[in-house]
Amino acid sequence: MLERGFVVVPTGVALVAVLVVCFVRRTGARRTCLYLALTAYVGAVAAVTLFPLPVEGGMGYAPTWGISYNLVPFAGIARTVADAAQTGWWWSIATVIVGGNVLMFVPLGLMLPLLSERLRRLPAAALVLAACSVAIELAQLVAGLAVAGYLYRVVDVDDVILNVAGGLIGFGLWKAWERLAAPKRDELV
């Protein structure tokens, strides 16, 4: 079993590499901090979405718990809410699964417009958010089938919907911050 801590070393190496590239290219301090934050964020998302990774089961071993995929929009969310209401674990189940998927992409939604002028438009940002979320689901599918030999995580279209919603919240926070900061910048000119 590869635990979440496995991601620390590759993320640390990536952080050092980003720092070296930014130094060589004489990237400004703000941009360097943004790249470092994005690198740490990607490492954290990988740790949460792909690990722990079961590797000792080998090919052919398939656990019997639950559904391994959901391609019907909102079906997983409805099932999660229904299970939570039925078991009385409303807060823990719904918050972790639904809220966690939303919150996970808020930082990305905040960072995208800071990374590129093109990503300051909602359609472009939404497209990148959706692509990143689909990439995570595909990575879970590939890691499950290629490494573990079975789907150890639920590959779920609802995760994409919730991730994009969270990213759009982050984008909205950036937009609000821009509007609040604009009058202050105009006063300085």
TrEMBL record:
TM spans (from-to): 6-24, 33-53, 89-112, 124-148, 160-177
The keyword Transmembrane helix appears for this protein: yes
Keyword set, alphabetical order: Membrane, Transmembrane, Transmembrane helix
The VanZ-like domain, residue ranges: 40-176
Pfam families named among the record's database cross-references: VanZ
InterPro entries xref list: Teicoplanin_resist-assoc (IPR053150), VanZ-like (IPR006976)
Protein name according to UniProt: VanZ-like domain-containing protein
